[in-house]
């Protein structure tokens, strides 16, 4: 356990690649004796015990839902945490599908990490099973979206990008990153991995529209499986009740809670298959129009505000915050010190001797670390303050307390439903302890960047005609939205500027809107959507939730007055949790305009 923390700290400080996650390919054997390879891929759900008390299944679905004559399949890795009651129990409430976002976040990983935590939130006198899946090409689903042949080459190129520094700082950084993404595009275009015998390429078939269609299949399969299970249970109880529902039963509906990009997946599902919407929560909301346009211009509107909250809460916490200074008269005094440290770092990277090694902290890496920390105030802000303080003091002895803080953070996030970290920073992810078996599994997987890029560039409009000059203007726009994170965020579309047409999805496999629903004509068991937005979310500002909600008839936005990305189980609010319980139990939405307070602040005990 200790070595993992040390590795993570090294990564946090230096952006060096976390070797544990870089080599820990999820394909093949996982810890705890379970390996996905050992269970067969089938056209019906067949569960196998895995990771302690979880159940795993590999489901075969068509590669191309819009072409019946394409014989190829993809295999989805599916995991379920059973409900705390038997499926025949009257209080069994059904299935809730969760998604941590990304795109490219592992659904399997998030259920193993947070299934119990989600259950704790949504269960009331109804008890739910929690299910997720690795979307096509992601993590344990096959074939994979990996483009590189080996990790060493992948990491070398990534390190080159990190070393080139922050985009706004030099033309050199821009030129290097432009070139790296040209290379990535060419590689993914020519990669043999994921090519079927007939030449079909997995990369053309990982659009969100196809994943939404996969969810229809999953819902049908889960329904069929539950019916069989109830049937056999009742038979073994020798019940004489009607056991199989009549064939004329309406189709099963999707209950869903998606974070971040998971809100785009849910939004797509609701817009394509409104007749299949059960209870859907979209949390940390993406502006679907902007995402579909490969814009990424409506994410950072509240990023400044989130960073300001860091100093506000730190000042308010007093001596509990490592950056607190008794002579500070307000948050701005603390901020001034951090700002001058960052400005100094721009020209003077900080050499550190740590654990018997020399490491170098650059401005770009420090900003990337702060970007990452802004997602999870409750779990990461005290740690960020300690880390900044020790770097500003050059006092490496405080690494000891950092280690303790990291340990606390690990404890605080295990069992919590948290958004996937940005795939560009996937190498920073620490290992997580999953399930009851205490298995250590990689939270990230080596080809997460390739997977994320394949999905989001194909989902978005083709922007390959963008010139360097136009891209520089784009960079300025994002920098004006957030001086701290703008240039990091701008790297997302750089991948798409170089994304080859040959691996884009066909038009019939893209859904480009309109993103909307009116469920009043459909199944009365379905409910309008529930949106959740935070007042200071670093990458999905509240205004996106309000905008998207307007398109979904009868939907309601709950505002959480907290900083951080998504509600999930990382930004606890008793008020929001009550709303979620009621919504999943009865399909009842709260009154519009409700603002929920957070139940804790980062420096609270
Ligand atoms: C695709 O999956 C279906 C359902 O499991 C199966 O019947 C079919 O043989 C598979 N096709 C291929 C080419 O593997
Ligand atoms: C459908 O799939 C078949 C078999 O792979 C292929 O020959 C055909 O071109 C595809 N049709 C379209 C419209 O892509
Ligand atoms: C963020 O702050 C910078 C100055 O630090 C300012 O120029 C910019 O307008 C702010 N952006 C937003 C969206 O408030
Ligand atoms: C939603 O559908 C219902 C029933 O068809 C209709 O009466 C209502 O006007 C629709 N709402 C909107 C905003 O179109």
Descriptive report:
The protein has 605 residues and is an alpha/beta fold. It folds into 2 domains: 4-18 and 302-421, no CATH class; 20-96 and 106-301 and 422-605, Rossmann fold. It is built from 18 helices and 15 strands. The chain has helices spanning 2-14, 19-23, 107-122, 151-164, 171-190, 208-236, 261-272, 288-292, 303-317, 331-347, 363-375, 377-393, 399-413, 448-459, 468-481, 486-497, 542-551, 574-586; strands at 41-42, 48-50, 54-62, 73-81, 92-99, 127-133, 254-259, 277-283, 350-354, 357-361, 432-434, 439-441, 530-536, 556-563, 595-597. Strands 1, 2, 3, 4, 5, 6, 7, 8, 13, 14 and 15 form an 11-stranded mixed sheet that branches. The longest helix has 29 residues, at 208-236. The radius of gyration is 23 Å and the shape is globular. The two termini are 24 Å apart. Mean pLDDT is 88; it is low at 1-31, 240-247, 400-406 and 430-438. The site of one 2-acetamido-2-deoxy-beta-D-glucopyranose (NAG) has 6 residues, from α15. This is Peptidase S33 tripeptidyl aminopeptidase-like C-terminal domain-containing protein. InterPro entries: AB_hydrolase_1, AB_hydrolase_fold, Pept_S33_TAP-like_C, Serine_prot/Carboxylest_S33. Residues 95-312 form the AB hydrolase-1 domain. Residues 1-24 form the signal peptide. Residues 483-596 form the Peptidase S33 tripeptidyl aminopeptidase-like C-terminal domain.
């Amino acid at each position: 356990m200790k070595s993992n923390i040390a590795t993570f700290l090294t990564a946090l400080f230096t952006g060096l690649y976390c070797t544990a996650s870089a080599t820990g390919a999820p394909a093949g054997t996982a810890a705890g004796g379970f390996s996905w390879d050992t269970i067969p891929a089938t056209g019906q759900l067949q569960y196998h015990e895995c990771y302690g008390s979880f159940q795993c299944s590999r489901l075969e679905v068509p590669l191309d839902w819009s072409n019946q004559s394409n014989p190829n399949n993809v295999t989805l890795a599916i995991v379920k945490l059973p409900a705390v009651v038997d499926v025949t129990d009257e209080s069994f409430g059904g299935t809730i599908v969760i998604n941590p976002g990304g795109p490219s976040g592992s659904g399997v990983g998030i259920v193993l990490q947070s299934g119990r935590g989600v259950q704790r939130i949504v269960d009331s006198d109804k008890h739910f099973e929690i299910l997720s899946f690795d979307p096509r090409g992601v993590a344990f689903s096959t074939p994979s979206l990996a483009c590189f042949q080996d990790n060493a080459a992948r990491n070398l190129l990534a390190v080159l990008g990190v070393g080139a520094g922050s985009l706004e700082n030099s033309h050199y950084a821009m030129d290097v990153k432009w070139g790296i993404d040209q290379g990535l595009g060419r590689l993914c275009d020519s990669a043999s991995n994921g090519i079927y015998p007939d030449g079909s390429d997995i990369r053309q078939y990982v659009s969100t529209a196809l994943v939404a269609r996969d969810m229809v299949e999953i819902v049908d399969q889960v329904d069929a499986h539950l019916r069989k299970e109830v049937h056999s249970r009742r038979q073994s109880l020798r019940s004489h009740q009607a056991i199989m529902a009549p064939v004329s039963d309406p189709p099963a509906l999707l209950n869903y809670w998606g974070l971040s990009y998971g809100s785009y997946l849910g939004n797509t599902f609701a817009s394509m298959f409104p007749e299949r919407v059960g209870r859907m929560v979209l949390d940390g909301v993406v502006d679907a129009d902007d995402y579909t346009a490969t814009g990424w211009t409506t994410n950072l509107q509240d990023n400044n505000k989130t960073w300001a909250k860091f100093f506000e809460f730190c000042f308010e916490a007093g001596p509990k915050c490592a950056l607190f200074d008794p002579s500070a008269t307000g948050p701005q005094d603390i901020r001034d010190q951090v700002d001058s440290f960052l400005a100094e770092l721009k020209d003077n990277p900080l050499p550190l001797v740590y654990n018997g090694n020399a490491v170098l902290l650059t401005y770009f890496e420090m900003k990337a670390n702060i970007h990452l920390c802004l997602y999870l105030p409750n779990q990461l802000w005290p740690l960020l303050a300690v880390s900044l303080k020790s770097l500003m003091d050059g006092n490496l002895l405080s690494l000891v307390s950092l280690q303790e803080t990291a340990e606390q953070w690990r404890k605080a996030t295990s069992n919590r439903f948290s958004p996937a970290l940005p795939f560009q920073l996937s190498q920073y992810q620490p290992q997580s302890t999953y399930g009851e078996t205490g298995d250590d599994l990689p939270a990230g997987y080596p080809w997460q960047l390739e997977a994320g890029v394949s999905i989001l560039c194909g989902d978005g409009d083709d922007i390959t005609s963008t010139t360097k000059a136009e891209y520089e203007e784009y960079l300025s726009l994002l920098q004006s939205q957030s001086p701290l994170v703008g240039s990091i965020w701008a790297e997302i579309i750089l991948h798409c500027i170089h994304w080859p047409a040959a691996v884009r999805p066909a038009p019939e496999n893209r859904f480009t809107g309109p993103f909307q629903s009116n469920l009043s004509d459909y199944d009365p068991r379905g409910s309008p959507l529930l949106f959740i937005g935070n007042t200071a979310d670093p990458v999905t500002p509240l205004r996106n939730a309000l905008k998207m909600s307007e398109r979904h008839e009868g939907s309601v936005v709950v505002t959480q007055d907290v900083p951080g990305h998504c509600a999930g189980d990382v930004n606890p609010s008793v008020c929001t949790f009550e709303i979620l319980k009621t919504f999943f139990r009865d399909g009842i939405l709260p009154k519009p305009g409700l603002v929920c307070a957070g139940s804790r602040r980062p420096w609270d005990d």
